[in-house]
Design brief:
Elements (H helix, E strand, L loop, with lengths): L9 H9 L8 H11 L4 E4 L4 E3 H8 L4
Helix pairs in contact: 2-3
């Protein structure tokens, strides 16, 4: 645990898990699933281009 970080009280954590809000998964795992599920969909659009989730995943280099 990092200095200064306060854990959620156990009763809150239990309630969030019971309601499905917490899945005990890392953020990295959640993003990996999103990138895979929506690979062909557009994730980001700017004035000059759009980027799919697959391209964003590839460009990030951290989710492999």
């Amino acid at each position: 645990m990092l200095d200064g970080v306060v854990r959620f009280p156990p009763e809150f954590a239990a309630r969030y898990r019971a309601k499905g809000y917490w899945e005990d998964r890392s953020l990295r795992d959640v993003f990996a699933d999103v990138f895979a599920k929506y690979a062909d969909r557009v994730a980001i659009i700017d004035r000059e281009q759009s980027v799919t989730y697959a391209q964003l995943n590839e460009r990030s280099g951290i989710w492999h």
